[in-house]
Amino acid sequence: MNARFLLIAVLAAAVGAPFDAAPAADELVVYSGRKEMVLKPVADAFQKKTGMQVKLKIGKTSGLANELIQEKARPRADVFIATEAGVMEVLARSGVLDAYVSPEARDLEPGFRDREGQWTGISSRARVLLYNKNLVAEKDVPRSVFQLTDPKWKGKVAVAGTRERTTLSWVSSLVAVKGAEFTRNYLSKLYANGLKILPDNADVWQGVGRGEFAIGLTNSPNYFLARKADYPVGVVYPDQDDGGSGTLLNLNVIALVKGAANPAAARRFIDFVLSVEGQRILIDGAYEIPLKPDIIDPVPLTGFRRTPVTEEQLADLAESTLKLLAGIGPEW
């Protein structure tokens, strides 16, 4: 795949504080598409355990991936954490990542880590329908994303744009399972039905919680964040009926950057994130779905039928999916 789409289509997606200083020899630099409130507790625990300083750069996954490509000749990051694995496939093909198979990854199921060791899944999130119970009667709760084109939902559905990489993965998964023409027609109808495209998944779950929208397409941890905020919300893992496309499972993934200034520390950090101690921080603090069988899930997030799509397929479809969405509306 040509990785230029990262440089062209998502150049504006790079966010975060200025990061001009060269990395220090005794400092671990982590680029993270996961939000600070999710990753900082993990970094703090690692720092306390090892005494090694961790410098976080937080941004959108696509924007940070773009920066890694730009910095390929002189990497600033030691570790990259992404909100889905498709972008890691692109970076691996671009020569940005270095292979590392952590001993802590030995129990991961096939598909939860790259066969060549270029990336490893650390946790996951399901693509769900979040709804406001005050606006959606129980008998009317949609069970499929394809029901959202019904006129009764006109102007009442929200989704984040593709700066949120999980949205791009969701659409790519529809293309993989249903085909490009079906997906284009579906999204065109959804768009014509007044779909609200927002900058961030946080805008989606907070908007649904406040009653600005009846339904949001978002990620499973946002249901628990909305509940924690005392919003009247419910959740659906969509398309579980026979013949349905299933619910997409997005992996959060970690990788070693090729040419990292501190590769030994980077490997040690990856080991820590995958350890029971690191996993517990992610699962308990961020409501994420564990990938390792020895991690007990505190909330019933498993047991749903997954969309049958591989990370390689999502990577292969990313560029054409961006073009498909651009043809439907500029807000994507």
Write out key terms for the chains shown.
single chain, 332 residues, 2 domains
How would you sum up this structure, described in words?
By secondary structure, the chain is an alpha/beta fold. The protein folds into two domains: 174 residues, Periplasmic binding protein-like II (D-Maltodextrin-Binding Protein, domain 2), CATH 3.40.190.10; 131 residues, Periplasmic binding protein-like II (D-Maltodextrin-Binding Protein, domain 2), CATH 3.40.190.10. Helices cover 37% and strands 17% of the residues. The chain is built from eleven helices and ten strands. Strands 1, 2, 3, 4, 5, 6, 7, 8, 9 and 10 form a ten-stranded mixed beta sheet that branches. Strand 1, helix 2 and strand 2 form a beta-alpha-beta unit. The longest helix is centred in the last third of the chain and has 18 residues.
